[in-house]
Amino acid sequence: MTAPGVQPRTANEEFAARRQHLGQRIQHFVHGHPWASPLVILIVSVAVFSVLSPQFGTAGNLSLVAQQATVLAAVSAGQVLVLLSGGVDLSVGAVTVLTTFVVGKLAADMGAPGIVALVAGLVAGAALGMVNGFLVAFLKLNPFIVTLGTLSVFTALITLISQGQIVEGSELDWLITLTAQSFIIGGFTVTVGMIVVTVLYLLLAYALLQTAWGRHVFAVGDDAEVSRLLAIRVRRVRLSVYVVAGMIMAVAGWVLIGRTGAVSPQSALSINLDSITAVVIGGTGLAGGRGSIVGAVLGSLVVAVFRNGLFLAGVPALFQDLSVGVLIVVAVTLDMWIRRVRA
């Protein structure tokens, strides 16, 4: 019998369903549940590295992996938002570091209170995001080229502002370094930064899944022209996405300061590609319109597990970077395979 409220399938649909082989069924399942594949990859990765290195599976090391994934997860939250709208942002790392210098210089050099410096960082992140958003949404430039260009511009600004100097954590207000504070639960270390990122994801999940703005983001990423015909203001949505992503980068910068204990121009060097890797592994489509917030967290954990596990296994740094490069290729290949689904 057919369950109440469920439309019975036609004979053709029933026949098509029976003809699907295992690969097609997996393909359809992953398409409908983007978090599934990163969860499997994470479980397998943890199991493999636990065998390769007994130290990997200890509570202390697993909490370290979670801490290492915290900054990447925060940056990936902004990246997944941009990708959902059909764009891409190669400048996320530079925006994150640049906001840390806005915060650090205001607090250390100008004596601004911690809350004032952090708000200024949020404003700076929004402004940098607005630059990217305006060029993409209103001038209709390619987001890859735009953010590749602004990556260079923002990196130059970091060099100009920092003069190659580090701002030590001891020079900063306690509120700015608050994300470094931690407590232990059952042998597992939890930092304030981890709590901040968790709250960030909950807010982003609510905005995307429970508000009209979130539905518009998915719609624009799926098909901008159809969205325009449905009276969705596509340019405003795209601009807002980059602005919100810039503010998320500022939050990631706050977490980064706590993680590194300083404001440094050399921090988060590899986070641009790592964030794209994390969100694509997490099930977010490069073409936009399909993705998972939970998947972005899982993807960030996968990247952190690979880096930590390979380090404990004694793999040279060169091959650690190579493995992340392989992850990128696998993630893109998986995304293309999933997009071939025929409903």
Describe the structure.
The protein has 343 residues and is mainly α. The chain has a single domain (37-49, 57-338), classed as ABC transporter involved in vitamin B12 uptake, BtuC. Helices cover 70% and strands 3% of the residues. The chain has helices at 11-19, 22-32, 36-52, 59-84, 92-108, 114-137, 143-162, 192-210, 212-222, 224-229, 234-260, 271-281, 293-312, 317-339, and strands at 167-168, 182-185, 188-191, 262-263. The protein has a two-stranded antiparallel sheet. A two-stranded antiparallel sheet has the order 2-3. The two termini are 23 Å apart.
Low-confidence stretches: 1-6
**Strand neighbour order, sheet with most strands:** 1-4
**Percent in helix:** over 70%
Order of helices and strands: HHHHHHHEEEHHHHEHHH
- Structural class by sheet pairing and helices: mainly alpha
Question: What is the helix tally?
Answer: 14
- CATH top level assignment: Mainly Alpha
Largest sheet properties: 2 strands, antiparallel
Shape: globular
Number of domains: 1
What gap, in angstroms, lies between the N and C termini?
23 Å
By CATH, the architecture is named Orthogonal Bundle
Rg: 21 Å
Portion in beta strands: under 5%
Q: Count of DSSP E strands?
A: 4
CATH topology assignment: ABC transporter involved in vitamin B12 uptake, BtuC
Write the SSE topology.
Elements: H1 11-19, H2 22-32, H3 36-52, H4 59-84, H5 92-108, H6 114-137, H7 143-162, E1 167-168, E2 182-185, E3 188-191, H8 192-210, H9 212-222, H10 224-229, H11 234-260, E4 262-263, H12 271-281, H13 293-312, H14 317-339
Antiparallel strand pairs: 1-4, 2-3
Helix pairs in contact: 3-13, 4-8, 4-11, 4-12, 4-13, 5-6, 5-7, 5-11, 6-11, 8-9, 8-11, 9-11, 12-13, 12-14, 13-14
